[in-house]
Design goal:
Blueprint (H helix, E strand, L loop, with lengths): L15 H4 L2 H17 L4 H10 L4 H28 L20 H17 L2 H14 L4 H14 L2 H14 L4 H13 L1 H4 L1 H14 L4 H13 L3 H15 L3 H11 L4 H14 L5 H14 L3 H14 L3 H13 L3 H14 L3 H5 L12 H6 L2
Helix pairs in contact: 2-3, 2-4, 3-4, 5-6, 5-7, 6-7, 7-8, 7-9, 8-9, 9-11, 11-12, 12-13, 13-14, 15-16, 16-17, 17-18, 18-19
């Protein structure tokens, strides 16, 4: 029995005995896949055609699920071959039959998507061909210009990258993704473009996305450079409330607060506490303890960490307390606190064996025991 032989005679309905026949399933699945690709990957078109062949809604749905599984397996196999290097040269050729006014926006988006995919793979030549095709079909395709900007940025052609980012922004001045890409490009090449253009772009990003983490980090550093502490603190509040667990944000907070007097810093900690999200407040108190430890007020810092542990025990609270106890020659207390630290986070044992402020304990018998 040849492929599609079951389809030569159309029946008003397909009985289950026939439907579940292995050969019938194989042929119908092959036919369904053909219909799928002939109709722009439309499962609706497959369903309609299967109904025309006499399948019930339930039978059509079952076959379509098998087709989806087959397609997914095919995609996964293709991706595995790409990842392994078995397939290395993939070219996606524009269709000459696709002309302006004769295709819908979905087709333009496909070319942009294909172009972005090829950029990711490093095939800039094919990516450019696809993006240019998208612009041939729609000269106002913002994302085509944006991706050409990204392409040239990856190639190191900053002039062309900026040109295409700007073309995209002429069409969509508030496109945060494009603004962000341009901002990062200007930052990486600030000697070429100058600080003024870079900061103007940063401020534009913040107009359209007030909580953009990269833009906030850039603008805070700019304000600190100019000793504009009020604006730096206002921007820092926005950044900290959403990204309080990020190391760079914590360091930026400590750097900013180090420029204040002790009383000003303590007042700002209280103001921050009132204005940030509740879930960020524990981390803020931890930063307060680190700040106090840094300026030498160990007693106050110790109290902060102790109070935090009453709310929720945290390894780094105990670790900071242990370090301060050691700095004040309270070795026994330090070792007890380190023991508690390692109970909560054993990975800190290695850190302790390398931490300069604990160096005097490295040969201590109890220290060696608890850091095993």
């Amino acid at each position: 029995m040849g492929i599609f032989d079951f389809l030569k005679k159309k029946k008003p309905a397909v009985e289950d005995q026939l439907f579940y026949d292995k050969q019938y399933q194989t042929e119908m699945l092959a036919y369904a896949q053909t219909v799928y690709f002939q109709n722009k990957q439309s499962y609706d078109a497959v369903k309609t055609e299967l109904s025309n062949q006499g399948l019930s809604d339930a039978q059509a749905a079952e076959l379509i699920e098998k087709l989806k599984g087959f397609n997914a397996a095919m995609v996964n196999d293709f991706q595995e071959k790409l990842d392994s290097g078995e397939i290395t040269d993939i070219k996606i050729k524009p269709n000459d039959e696709h002309v302006k006014g004769k295709v819908d926006t979905d087709q333009v988006d496909r070319y942009i998507g294909y172009g972005a995919y090829q950029i990711e793979r490093g095939d800039f030549e094919n990516a450019l061909e696809l993006l240019d095709k998208a612009l041939e079909l729609d000269e106002k395709a913002t994302l085509a210009y944006a991706n050409k900007g990204l392409l040239y940025a990856k190639k190191g052609d900053n002039k062309k990258a900026t040109e295409f980012y700007n073309k995209a922004l002429e069409l969509e001045p508030g496109n945060v993704k494009v603004l962000g890409n341009k901002m990062d490009l200007l930052f990486e090449n600030i000697d070429q473009y100058g600080e003024a253009e870079f900061i103007d772009t940063v401020k534009t990003v913040l107009v359209h996305e007030a909580d953009s983490p990269n833009a906030l980090i850039y603008i805070i550093q700019f304000y600190l450079k100019g000793s504009d502490l009020p604006n730096a603190l206002n921007s820092l509040k926005r950044l900290f409330t959403n990204y309080y667990s990020e190391g760079i944000v914590i360091q930026l907070l400590l750097d900013t607060f180090s420029r204040l007097t002790k009383q000003e810093a303590l007042n700002e900690f209280e103001l921050f506490k009132q204005q940030i999200k509740p879930e960020a407040q524990y981390q803020l108190e931890y930063c307060k303890g680190i700040y106090l430890k840094g300026i030498g007020d160990r007693q106050s810092a110790f109290e902060v960490f102790e109070n935090l542990n009453k709310i929720q025990a945290f390894s780094w609270n105990y670790y900071q307390m242990a370090i301060m106890a050691n700095l004040e020659n309270r070795a026994t207390e330090c070792l007890q606190l380190l023991s508690k630290t390692f109970e909560l986070e054993p990975q800190l044992k290695m850190d302790a064996k390398q931490y300069p402020e604990l160096q005097n304990l490295w040969e201590n018998e109890e220290f060696i025991k608890i850091t095993k």
